[in-house]
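Hi, here's the filled form for the chain we discussed.

Project: internal
Contact: R.S.
Residues: 366
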Amino acid sequence: MVELIRDVEAFNRLAPEWEALTTRSSVRNPFVTHAWLANWLDAFGDGCHGAILERAGGRAIAAAFVRDQGTSLSGPEAHTYWTEVLDEGDEALAALFGRLAREGGGRLSLPGSAEGAYRERLTRAAAGKFVVVPKNPWTSRAIGVEGSLSQFLSGKPPKLRAELGRKRRKLERELGPVELLDLSGAPTAPGAMAIVEQVERGSWKKDAGTAIVCSERETRFYRGVAALEARGARGRLFALAVRGEPVAYVLGLEHERSYYALKTSYLAELAGTAPGIVLLCRVIERLAEEGRISAIELLGRDARWKQELATSKRTHCSYELLPRGAWSALYSVAHEFVRPNVRRVADGVIKALSEARLFERRGGGE
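And the returned structure, exactly as it came back:
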């Protein structure tokens, strides 16, 4: 079987080699950096997660961070976002897949871009070893902040602009003047996490059991995020405060020219004043003024407010790599061609039945 480096200390010893490979790779997001993954492994590692590497010429040429499920390897699920394979190029990726095919057994599931070029590259590298099947597509959205807040708002429908203005005025009318707090890097991490935990205890997420403070592992992980400073990645928290008391926050990570919004929440009692949206507008304004960040990446589940505020989007999916064989070929055809057609037929039948029931309620056309 392929060796999986599961131990935090062992993974920490890989830091120079991992970071050198990150530099040579074309992947450009913070979720493949050693600092991010080491913090993740420290908080959520359960003996099933770790790194696999392919080496040549005395150095790592390809690597992936995965979960060992016994008969398969897959990308980890919690807080990993865009954890793609690191590699020096097509030959290195093919070498990693070749070793997995020879030694790994079972199937391999990896997250990645759903764009055609990325899929074609995976398919080339997996040729003769695996059948590549894209599954479970999802969308992430981003807000461009290269201009001013006024420029951003000018690109939105008049109705949305008016609604954002009303929310801002209502919040200030009911609560008074608001202040934007901005804390970044390791020295401010304790203060940043104190704000996060204070707001989370008063948020709707606390009652739902999804707040950071509901889990020791979550708390440990986000403390590491707030303190993270490595390879151009830096934890940064923005909070909206009223008379010095935080009412909403967004905790994220700066990396190169993007701000990745990882976690956000607000006091449940203030839901009617939309403090989260007001805070986001203030963050857009601050980042646009600074001029170092070009986009805010809105991570996590898609939502209507993200769709309304975003200026761009990208699609992702999980790629299932199945050992070559007749069953895998049939599965691929069924998933990509048969299943979508069955779904379209089913949707058509449901629509026809709905129209028929509506026709009957209207008296059958009499």
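Let me know if anything looks off before we file it.
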